[in-house]
Amino acid sequence: MVAGQDPAADVEGQWLYKHGDLVLGPVSGTLIVEKLTTGELAPETWVALAGERDFHRMTEVDAFRVHIARAEAASRVAAAVVVERAKSAKRLKVLGGAAVAGVLVLGVVGVQVARNAAVHGWFGGDDLPQDDFEMGEITIRVAQARADDEELFEYPGTGVRRPGTGEPGAKPATGSGAPGRVAMASTTRAPDRKPPRPGGSVSTEPDGMEMTQQFDQDAINKVVASNKSTLFRCFKEEAERSPGIYAKVPMEFVIGNDGRVSKLWVDNHQFKKGPLYECLLSEMQKWPFRAYEGERATVGLSFTIGKRG
Fold first, then answer.
1. What residues in the chain have per-residue pLDDT under 50?
2. Are residues 221 and 172 in the same domain?
3. How many CB atoms lie within 10 A of CB 202?
4. 281 and 203, same structural domain?
5. What is the pLDDT of residue 306?
6. Are 69 and 195 found together in one domain?
7. Within the chain, where are the H helices?
8. Is residue 54 part of a domain?
9. C-alpha span between 291 and 255 (Å, rounded)
10. How far apart are the C-alpha atoms of 180 and 169, rounded to whole Å?
11. Which residue from 208, 220, 201 is spatially nearest to 259, judged by alpha carbons?
12. CA atoms within 13 A on the CB side of 195
C-alpha cells in the first residue's frame, strides 16, 4: 500500500477484521458488507486492509458508513415488523377469544330462549285458539269462609247457592243486618241500575258489626282482563293431556291485602288439584293487583275448555 493512502478509500481489496482477540481474514470487502448486513459483524468491528498494521472501527471508515446506515435501517425495519406482527398476533388472539365468548353467550341465550318458547309458547302457534275456550262473566265480592264439603258457587242474579240445589242461599248484603247475608258486588250491571262505586261501601255482618269494602272493583276487573291470557297456556297443556276434552272450569280466588292471590278454588272435581290447578295458581299469583285494606276480595271466573261434541 502506498504511504499516505487512505485505507478506507473503498471496500475493494482484501480486509482483516477482529473477532474478540482473533484476527481473521483476509476477506473481500464485499464479504465484510454482507456480514455487516446480516448482523454477523457489528458496526464497531475493527477492520484493516491486508498488509496494514493499524485497525480502525468500521464506523470510522468512510467506505463502510453508507453500508452501516443501510444495515441499521434494515435492522430497524425488521424490528418494527417483528413488533407489529406480535401486536397483530395479540389482537387476533383477543378477537378470537371474544368471538368464542360471544358464540358461547349466544348459544346459552339461544338455548334459554328456545326453552322459554317451548314452555310459554312464544313466536305464535302455541296459544290456545280462541274457538277452543270461552270465558264467562267476572264476579267480585267480599271474601267469606268456604267449607270443603259445602263449596259455594256464585250464579248471576241468584246470589250464592250450593251445587245441586235450586234454592238460593245468601243474597247480596243491603245493609239491613239480616242474618246469613254477605256483601256482594258483581261487575255485571243491570240496565236500569247505576254502577256501584269502587270503594268505601259499608255492609253489616250477621253479628251487627260493620265491615268496610275498600277494594277497587274496576281496578280488579282491569287486571283480570289484561292478564287472563296468561291462563291460556294452562288450558292448552290440559287440552294436550286430555285430547278431545270438553269441561267447564269455574273458579274463585282471594286477593290478599298485599295485592297477591292467596287462595284458589277450582269448582270442578276433575281439576281441584293437579297440574291445571298448580298452573292456574302459579300464573294468578303473578297478577299485579293493587294492595288495599279492609275485607279481602273474592273474584269468580269461569272458563269452558274445548267444544261440545
1. 1-9, 118-121, 123-130, 149-204, 208-210
2. yes
3. 11
4. yes
5. 78
6. no
7. 29-38, 62-120, 217-227, 232-241, 275-284
8. yes
9. 9
10. 8
11. 220
12. 8
